[in-house]
Description:
By secondary structure, the protein is of the alpha/beta class. The protein has a single domain (about 1-90), classed as 3-Layer(aba) Sandwich (Rossmann fold). The chain has helices at about 10-20, 35-40, 60-70, 85-90, and strands at about 1-5, 25-30, 45-50, 75-80. Keywords: Phosphoprotein, Two-component regulatory system.
Amino acid sequence: MKILLADDEKLIAITLGDALLEAGHAVTVVHDGKEALQAIHDNNFDVIITDIRMPHADGYSVLETVKKIHPQTHVILITTFATVEDAVNSVKNGA
């Protein structure tokens, strides 16, 4: 699978990225929302894993852009600051 991983926490990105690579996936890692949006415009990913809170563009912006450009792409939102409202909004928007 071709996966985009977007997280500004570099240790999390490296750890998760390495695990996905070991599982045999092609992984692109970026560290802010602007880089994620550029990667989405330049590539077609099967899955996007994105942090909700990142510099330059948040995970919701990434989700919205993905669903407009590549509606078949699956999006997984991750965060250390989750609320029930965040979860409900994410699901309503296609995550």
